[in-house]
Write the structure tokens for this entry.
Amino acid sequence: MSIQVSAASPGEPRSASCPPPGAQEAARMEAVRRYDILDTPPDGAFDRVAALAARFCGVEMATVTIVDTDRIWFKAAEGLQDVSEIGRDPGLCASAILQDEPYVLPDTLKDPQAVANPLVRGELGLRFYAAAPITTADGYRLGTVNVLDTRPRRVTHRETDTLRDLAAVVMDELELRLASMRTVQLERELRHSQEAEMRTAMESHAVIDQAMGILMKAQACDATTAWKVLKRLSQNTNTKLRDIAHATADLATGTEPVALDNAVRELLRRALTPQRPRA
């Protein structure tokens, strides 16, 4: 296990703050969108993770964040009032998601990137930051579980291990949400498919009933005989019963059915020719 600890002096470059390649960041953002978590309402599961992180590490502030294209969005925030997002300034979460391991700033004022962050230079005066990345199974870092303090402090391996575990809990919760959303979507698609099939079946029944009525009138026969005629035409010509019924209705109204073979059309015409009474 390793911990990324920043203690750079002013002016010293740090690779952790280098922006990720465009294609890599685009793939990461695609993973963020996959979970559909941004701008969702507060959720007790994530709130508890933030509260546990703060309590275990002995600090008053902790957050569960998702890193968007241009902002850090707080899914949960313990000890921070009226803060739902901040800009994606380097130094804190924007730098933490570039690391596979927990990322720790014992003193933010000693880090040239973090010192410019609004949470550091602003009224809050943040001096300590430690975070573990929320990482998908396919390796994309969505955000962090992190703890914050207004005083410099050190962090123990036990604390960073706990942050890592809590980040894994957040990832598990996101996967559960995703599975649930997919189940709902599949159920919706199945319901729509069943409704469409039912509508088609009802329409088919209606046109078959219409065709039977036409045949009953043309041949002066009963419903059973008309049904047998339609079924025989369908079987003998290898044509769907619904198509035979549609064509029957078309021919009865003087419309030429364009989807039928000439031979099938001729058989239908014969079936629709009124039967002369026998002498």
